Amino acid sequence: MSYFDNFMLANQAYVALHGTAHLPIKPKTKVAIVTCMDSRLHVAQALGLALGDAHILRNAGGRVTDDMIRSLVISQQQLGTREIVVLHHTDCGAQTFTNPAFHEQLYRDLGVDVSDMDFLPFINIENSVREDMQKLKDSPLIPEDVVINGAIYDVDTGRMTEVK
Ligand SMILES: [Zn+2]
After folding, report:
1. How remote is the CA of residue 70 from the centroid of ligand 1, in Å?
2. What is the pLDDT of residues 27-78, one digit of tens each?
């Protein structure tokens, strides 16, 4: 038995809560949130978002990668979002390793040479938020008039602090 069985069971209860309602495919707030996969960050609850309100794009670290930009272009040009929030958080898994050490670990444990792969670790959270906001501003695929904000979420208190 895997944890998946629990999900199927929990979903039965959720269906009753959800009811049947077809919301528009375009997010109501016109916002896309770029954030980390961290399990302690419940983005919808923390930001007061309901179903249909915003796109939530997640990866390790909440980093602006090529694939994150791919999703944002679809979010904006197909689904009407006009604002982006880069939301990183305290105690992030992307702060727990360096590229060289991780490359070495993967070679040792998996026998795969990924020495040219950047896993985008970071030390300072404010810097990583600023770096990713800048990457969005520099991208020709993100229009100039798109509003970009950045913040840090504290996993211990749930508090979000703006990064200027
Ligand atoms: Zn994280």
Report:
1. 20
2. 999 999 999 999 999 999 999 999 999 999 999 999 999 999 999 999 999 9
What is the set of domains in the chain, with CATH numbers? 25-163 (3.40.1050.10)
CA of 93 to the centre of ligand 1 (A): 5
pTM for the model: 0.95
Ligand 1 center–CA 22 separation, angstroms: 32
Q: Which residue has the tokens 């980093």?
A: 63
- Indicate the burial class of 28 (C-beta count within 10 angstroms; 0-12, 13-18, 19 or more): middle
